[in-house]
């Protein structure tokens, strides 16, 4: 039973949307607290006490505070999943899903954050070629990982699809996906839109995120 789950987030944030997709897939009720990151609410003392790294998403599970979306989604499946489908317990299968999660944390999401933070914090709207290239590389890796599979790790959905999917769909804010070059990524992202409530959990925040960034960014190519 989920007692008192609270998710601190902001809808435009990809890792927050990954957590929402996971909570939805697990059919968990939770309270959602929207934070005003652009107004600096994450630096207020009360929030810093909960997460000194001042990032969202942050999960409060009856007093247990967990941040970093990847830690949150794994925790949620381990604690509340009726099966281990979304985050397998088998060590090899789990390691493969973890690899995709760490890829999101260290490569995929960073290729986006390295563009979004300079803009949101310092109003830097010129994106140098090497940052554009990082995004192209990230799309390329996803194309390879997908191979002939429906999902990022094999034939069934895992938390890696939620994390990488929320990020990959958001990369369009910087560089639109070239569907001819990355057809598997395009088909996978399209497949994810068929998830129940995907519109509410990912698309809405995603559209706002794209609206905020895309019109102002100037790409050096
Ligand atoms: C990244 C969270 C993050 O950068 C995760 O949870 O997966 N690896 C972490 N969150 C940003 C919002 S966003 O860019 O999605 C955030 O909270 N920034 C506010 C700040 O002060 O850093």
Summarize the structure.
The protein is of the alpha/beta class and 221 residues long.
List keywords for this structure.
221 residues, alpha/beta, Glutaredoxin, Glutathione S-transferase Yfyf (Class Pi), Chain A, domain 2, 2 domains, four-stranded mixed beta sheet, two-stranded parallel ribbon, globular, binds L-gamma-glutamyl-3-sulfino-L-alanylglycine
In the residues, how many domains can be counted? 2
Count of individual beta strands:
6
The percent range for strand residues is 5-15%
CATH topology of the largest domain: Glutathione S-transferase Yfyf (Class Pi), Chain A, domain 2
Major β-sheet strand ordering: 2-1-3-4
Which percent range fits the helix content? Answer: 40-55%
Q: Could you say which small molecules are bound to this protein?
A: L-gamma-glutamyl-3-sulfino-L-alanylglycine
CA-based gyration radius: 17 Å
Mean pLDDT, rounded to whole units?
A: 97
Main sheet summary: 4 strands, mixed
Written description of the protein model:
The protein has 221 residues and is an alpha/beta fold. It is 53% helix and 10% strand. The protein folds into two domains: 5-80, Glutaredoxin (3-Layer(aba) Sandwich); 91-219, Glutathione S-transferase Yfyf (Class Pi), Chain A, domain 2 (Up-down Bundle). The protein has eight helices and six strands. Strands 2-1-3-4 form a four-stranded mixed sheet, with helices on one face. It binds L-gamma-glutamyl-3-sulfino-L-alanylglycine (GSF). L-gamma-glutamyl-3-sulfino-L-alanylglycine is lined by residues 13-15, 37, 42, 54-57, 68-70, 105, 113, 116.
């Amino acid at each position: 039973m989920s007692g008192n789950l609270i998710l601190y987030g902001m809808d435009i944030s990809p890792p927050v949307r990954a957590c929402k997709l996971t909570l939805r897939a697990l059919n968990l009720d939770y309270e959602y607290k929207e934070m005003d990151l652009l107004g600096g609410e994450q630096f207020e003392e009360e929030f810093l006490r909960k997460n000194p790294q001042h990032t969202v998403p942050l999960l409060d599970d009856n007093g247990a505070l967990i941040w970093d979306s990847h830690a949150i989604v794994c925790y949620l499946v381990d604690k509340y999943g009726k099966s281990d489908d979304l985050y397998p317990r088998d060590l090899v299968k789990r390691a493969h899903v973890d690899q995709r999660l760490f890829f999101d944390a260290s490569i995929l999401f960073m290729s986006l954050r390295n563009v979004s933070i300079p803009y949101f914090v310092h109003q830097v709207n010129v994106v140098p070629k090497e940052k554009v290239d990082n995004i192209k590389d990230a799309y390329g890796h996803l194309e390879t990982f997908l191979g002939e599979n429906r999902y990022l790790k094999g034939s069934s959905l895992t938390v890696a699809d939620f994390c990488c999917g929320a990020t990959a769909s958001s990369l369009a804010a910087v560089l639109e996906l070239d569907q001819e070059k990355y057809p598997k990524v395009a088909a996978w992202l399209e497949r994810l839109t068929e998830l129940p409530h995907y519109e509410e959990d990912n698309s809405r925040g995603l559209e706002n995120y794209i609206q905020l960034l895309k019109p102002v960014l100037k790409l050096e190519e």
